[in-house]
Prior knowledge:
Elements: E1 11-16, E2 21-22, E3 26-27, H1 29-44, E4 49-54, H2 55-63, E5 70-72, H3 82-93, E6 100-106, H4 112-121, E7 128-130, H5 149-158, H6 160-165
Parallel strand pairs: 1-4, 1-6, 4-5, 6-7
Antiparallel strand pairs: 2-3
Helix pairs in contact: 1-2, 3-4
Amino acid sequence: MQHRDTRRCSLKAIVAFSFGRIGKTQPSLSSREIARMVASYVRGDQEGCYVIAQWEVAIELRSLGAQVHYTVPLKERGYLSSRDVADAAAGFLSARRHLVSQVYAAAHPDHVERCIRCLRNARFPGAKGMTDPSIGYHFDADEWWVRSRSSFTFRERLAIPAYLWRRELF
């Protein structure tokens, strides 16, 4: 006879997506702002939550004293797509899914919708967004497309074929 865990699903999971980095060791200012938003939420949460963070955001979360349950590491090729992060979160949460009542994508305001779609494609159909309109664009990032809204919008349009192929748009 198989034992079934009957604990109530009351935990949340926050998947924090970065928005730029500096070199291979530091988060951009935008990624730091995302971390501060997540840390503020976690401090006020009474029910508990898992925090899964892309490495850039995880660095800042830890410096703020927030617990990170899983860090999505930098890949050898040097770039993590939003889908890579969502898939890593799904892997971490697969054995804990029965404990999680809601999954949130914490991201830059202009990036959050695609992050939600990636989580939904990773078998979290009820994923919701968590963002703050004060999270901005900063010139400190290595990636040119996260330095301004016009650059981000331009790159998003260029990347549509890749997003369609990777199923990040539906």
